[in-house]
Amino acid sequence: MISRVEIQETNRMIAEAKLDVRTITMGISLIDCADPDIEKFNENIYRKITTYAKDLVKVGDDIAKQFGIPVVNKRISVTPIAIAAAGCKTDSYVSIAKTLDRAAEACGVNFIGGFSALVQKGCTPSDKILINSIPEAMAVTERVCSSVNVGTSRNGLNMDAIKRMGEIIKETAELTTDRDSIGCSKLVVFCNAVEDNPFMAGAFHGVGEADCVINVGVSGPGVVKRALMEVRDGDFETLCETVKKTAFKITRVGQIVAQEASKRLNVPFGIIDLSLAPTPAVGDSIGEIFQEMGLEQAGAPGTTAALAILNDNVKKGGVMASSYVGGLSGAFIPVSEDHAMIEAATVGALTLEKLEAMTCVCSVGLDMIAIPGDTTASTISGIIADESAIGMINNKTTAARLIPVVGKKVGETVEFGGLLGYAPIMPVNKFSCENFIKRGGRVPAPIHSFKN
Question: What is the pTM of this model?
Answer without folding.
Answer: 0.91
